[in-house]
UniProtKB/TrEMBL annotation, chain A:
One of its GO terms (biological process) is organic phosphonate metabolic process. It comes from Phyllobacterium leguminum. Pfam families: PhnI (PF05861). This is Alpha-D-ribose 1-methylphosphonate 5-triphosphate synthase subunit PhnI.
From TrEMBL, chain B:
InterPro entries: PhnJ (IPR010306). Belongs to the PhnJ family. It is an enzyme of class 4 (lyase). Pfam families: PhnJ. It catalyses: alpha-D-ribose 1-methylphosphonate 5-phosphate + AH2 + S-adenosyl-L-methionine = alpha-D-ribose 1,2-cyclic phosphate 5-phosphate + methane + 5'-deoxyadenosine + L-methionine + A + H(+). Catalyzes the breakage of the C-P bond in alpha-D-ribose 1-methylphosphonate 5-phosphate (PRPn) forming alpha-D-ribose. This is Alpha-D-ribose 1-methylphosphonate 5-phosphate C-P lyase. Coiled coil: none annotated. GO terms for biological process: organic phosphonate catabolic process. Keywords: 4Fe-4S, Iron, Iron-sulfur, Lyase, Metal-binding, S-adenosyl-L-methionine.
TrEMBL record, chain C:
Gene3D superfamilies: Bacterial phosphonate metabolism protein PhnH (3.40.50.11310). One of its GO terms (biological process) is organic phosphonate metabolic process. This is Alpha-D-ribose 1-methylphosphonate 5-triphosphate synthase subunit PhnH.
Length: 365, 293, 203
């Protein structure tokens, strides 16, 4: 006997209860605190802040906990919260040159003013599982170099002094804002960089990788990667000057790319730029590679590879959009499926009729 | 602010006022240029993209405390996503909801248009996944926008005609493209083509929201909406051999329900409110024993 | 002091609900062109801006939408302060740069063609003009047809430019580009989107 599918409401409530139960897991295991997540899963928190476009460690930690460690789900939670926040004003551009660096490396020079500063990196660790971390072993406090409280100049500025790298001219126009303006292709570089900054790390990583393997090769050098805190300032019209409202940790990557020059421009290095919240080095580097690839049109290069294609890259780099639309295939589609079912049946009937007509004809002959 | 709902610290109908204003302006332009897709700065919503965020944003921007809201998915009020969206608005706007088409002032829908003809003053809000009717012929927005600007719809006719050449008929069964007031070719959202004629000269205002693709478009009431076709292959809607097994209703869109694994199946109204209203009037289909009238 | 007091007063008492109610009235009117509807005006702007025009401004205008004022309104400092305070309005001098225009004396306004028309690719990037007229009766009768109109709709707005019918035909001929009008008189509103066409011979 047919029972009409009812009770969607009860089913949803039950599913939510079960989800909460599974999220908590075994009750004899202590619940995670947000402090634990924010202190010990920092890079996950950084990714959520960066792709969630909201600098708030506590909320990012909360989102990770609520999302059971699913970072894209956590990013989604943060974005959905962020979008409801009223805007009080706009920050002045941050000065990464004034950054108090915790890590700063350049692959272009052996040594340079301010030095190479490795900072807290996985780079030269041997990836051997450390069973000691199954417990809570004593950890010595880290040491930082003397004088690390002084700003260090940026590689791009050093190269710029010699005129060997393209000049980055800041326009006087207000940069567009991807939150306020629907995308219109072709996009300004500001719009592209904003989109890339919140783009999916995995997607940008794969695209950046593709440029290294010949799909829009750009001869990149990691000119500089720096991680550290910068001051955020907001201009107060009442006061007539900008006042600091807080500090944020940023990762900045300046890729330096070969450029043969053109009829109008002498040979010089060009730039790809990456800037993200927190310590997100892989993302910043991938972003810089993609940014450089996306500048193909502006630099008069042929557009031959996916990473150079604005519409392709920018329309598909947002993981909140991507996961939503891919996963929406789970929703019922039976009305449309019914329509297709009817069509396939009709077409099969026509096909069979045509076949039997052909057989009859052959038999008659 | 009194408009903050008790359930949470969110604004009435979730969106902040500046976002609502932006969406409202887009809606007005959409109404003024029927069938044209107005870009808007779509927001992240607390449900995933592709699950109705465009429709939800449009509804949130127009909804007021006096509205009565109905939400359907696949024609039914009790499908999970319809339930979820209805609960969302109950929570963030404390709005009255209904399952009855005739009682609703705003109906948000995914994939169907109600069977009961809509009346003046009602607003039908469609959830749209891919608003661009030309997208599967030309993936680039820069190109499709030019095609709309120049009214260059040859590609669409070629596609439909290729169908006819290969199959003897047009093989598009849902999201069947329409032309609005002789100007814009428009995607009706993935409704079965059965519903296309209901859009033509409707008494209700029809608003379309595509959240992920950031587009809003509209059909004012009494607007000419013509399904694309050819003189020798006129547009036709789906027909079903049998009436609804529950209410006996004909000339409605039916869901096929598989009863067992031996090929047993039945057909029932996709529009659950339509079906229930008919049964409340005493009408019965084959399965419920009594024959209509 | 007087100007300051009036700049802070007269906005929406319940901004969220007043804006919603006003918007629905505009939306209904835009969806049913040339149909005169009554609206409860919920704002009290300084004269000569009418209450309903003030409510519409508070509903649709914000820092993202440059506003052009005709000289009757633009010369009034108290009014500019009111719009700046309640709608965060940003003013522009050139009609072509405005997303909205507020006009107290439509008979003396610049031709419709001087406002932003949008582009063929983006016809939505066009101006919406909010015109205060004297009345919806007593002027030259105008009959319209098009989307949103069952058959035809007529009104006789008083206070429009004398060559309005000609200007409107031109506006319609630019479709999908073109401007859209919101007309108000007292508590009454009617809209003319660019899709509303004048019926030939009857005007």
């Amino acid at each position: 006997m047919y029972v009409s599918v009812k009770g969607g409401e009860a089913a949803i409530d039950n599913a939510h209860r079960l989800l909460a139960d599974r999220r908590r897991g075994d009750r004899s295991v202590p619940a995670l605190t947000l402090d634990q997540i924010a202190e010990q899963l920092v890079l996950g928190v950084d990714r959520v802040m960066s792709e969630g476009s909201l600098y708030d460690r506590r909320l990012a930690a909360l989102a990770i906990k609520q999302a059971r460690g699913d970072l894209i789900e956590a990013i989604f939670l943060v974005r959905a919260y962020r979008t409801t926040l009223p805007r009080f004003g706009f920050a002045e551009p941050v000065d990464t040159g004034a950054m108090l660096v915790e890590r700063r490396i350049s692959a272009c020079y052996k040594d340079l003013p301010g030095g190479q500063l490795l900072g807290p990196t996985f780079d030269y660790t041997h990836r051997l599982l450390d069973e000691a971390l199954d417990g809570d072993p004593e950890v010595e406090p880290g040491e930082t170099r003397e004088g690390a409280t002084e700003p260090v100049s940026r590689i791009a500025d050093i190269l710029g002094g010699e005129g060997l790298i393209e000049e980055e001219i800041s326009g006087n126009d207000e940069p567009d804002d991807i939150n306020q303006t629907p995308l219109e292709f072709p996009l300004s570089r500001a719009m592209r960089l904003q989109s890339l900054a919140r783009g999916d790390e995995g997607f940008l990583l794969a695209l950046g990788y593709s440029t290294q393997r010949g799909y829009a090769r750009s001869h990149p050098f990691a000119g500089e990667i720096r991680i550290g805190e910068v001051e955020v300032e907001v201009f107060m019209p009442e006061l007539g000057f900008a006042v600091p409202v807080g500090r944020v940790q940023l990762t900045e990557c300046q890729m330096v790319n070969q450029f043969k020059g053109s009829a109008k421009v002498p040979p010089q290095f060009t730039r790809g730029y990456g800037l993200v919240f927190g310590q997100s080095e892989r993302k910043a580097m991938a972003m810089a590679l993609c940014d450089r690839a996306l500048r193909a049109g502006e630099l008069g290069e042929d557009i031959v590879a996916p990473a150079q294609d604005q519409e392709f890259v920018i329309s598909h780099c947002d993981n909140v959009q991507a996961t939503g639309f891919v996963e929406h295939l789970k929703l019922p589609h039976h009305v449309d499926f019914q329509a297709e079912l009817g069509l396939v049946r009709t077409m099969r009937t026509q096909f069979e009729q045509a076949e039997s007509a052909m057989e009859n004809k052959e038999a008659a002959e | 602010m009194t408009a903050r709902t008790q359930a949470s610290s969110y604004n009435f109908a979730y969106l902040d006022e500046q976002t609502k204003r932006m969406i409202r302006r887009a809606i007005l332009k959409a109404i003024a240029i029927p069938g044209y897709q107005v870009p808007f700065a779509s927001r992240e919503m607390p449900m995933p993209y592709g699950w109705g965020t465009g429709g939800v944003q449009v509804t949130a921007a127009i909804l007021g405390p006096d509205d009565v809201l109905k939400v359907i998915d696949q024609g039914a009020d009790d499908t999970t996503n319809a339930v979820s969206i209805r609960k969302f608005f109950e929570r963030v706007a404390d709005v009255e909801t209904t399952t009855r088409t005739v009682d609703a002032t705003i109906i948000q829908t995914r994939h169907r248009i109600p069977e009961t003809p809509l009346r003046e003053g009602q607003v039908l809000v469609y959830q749209v996944p891919i608003p661009e009717p030309l997208r599967f012929l030309e993936p680039r927005e820069t190109e499709t926008r030019k095609m709309h600007a120049l009214e260059e719809y040859g590609l669409m006719h070629v596609k439909l005609y290729e169908d006819i050449a290969r199959n003897g008929h047009i093989a598009t069964t849902y999201a069947y493209p329409v032309k609005v007031e002789g100007r814009y070719v428009m995607d009706p959202s993935p409704t079965p083509k059965f519903d296309n004629p209901k859009m033509h000269m409707s008494e209700a205002l029809q608003l379309f929201g595509a959240g992920r693709e950031k587009r809003i478009y509209a059909l004012p009431p009494h607007t000419e909406v013509v399904s694309l076709d050819f003189e020798d292959h006129p547009f036709e809607v789906q027909r079903f051999d049998k009436p609804c097994a529950l209410c006996g209703g004909g000339q409605v869109y039916l869901d096929e329900v598989v009863l067992d694994d031996r090929g047993g199946r039945m057909f029932v109204c996709s529009d659950t409110d339509h079906c229930e209203s008919r049964r409340a009037e005493g009408l019965r289909g084959e399965l419920l024993g009594e024959v209509a009238q | 002091m007087q100007a300051e007091a009036s700049a802070l007063d007269g906005g929406f008492a319940q901004p969220v609900f007043d804006a919603q109610a006003t918007f629905r009235a505009i939306m209904d009117a835009m969806a049913r062109p040339a149909t005169v509807m009554q609206v409860d005006p919920r704002a009290v702007p300084p004269a000569p801006l009418q209450s309903l025009a003030g409510a519409i401004a508070c509903t649709l205008i914000d820092p993202d939408t440059p506003v052009w004022l005709d000289s009757v309104l633009g010369d009034n400092e108290a009014l500019r302060a009111w719009l700046a305070f309640h709608a965060n309005a940003r003013f522009v001098e050139a009609p072509a740069g405005a997303a909205f225009a507020l006009v107290a004396d439509p008979s003396a306004m610049p031709p419709l063609g001087r406002f932003a028309q949008g582009s063929q690719e983006y016809p939505d990037r066009s101006a919406t003009l909010i015109l205060q007229i004297e009345s919806f009766e007593g002027g030259a009768p105008l009959t319209f047809h098009g989307p949103g109109i069952k058959g035809t709709a007529s009104m006789a707005p008083l206070g429009l430019p004398s060559d309005f019918a000609g200007q409107w035909d031109e506006n319609v001929s630019r479709f999908p580009r073109g401007i859209d009008l919101i007309l108000i008189a007292g508590d009454a509103i009617a809209c003319l989107p660019r899709s509303a066409r004048l019926v030939e011979g009857e005007n």
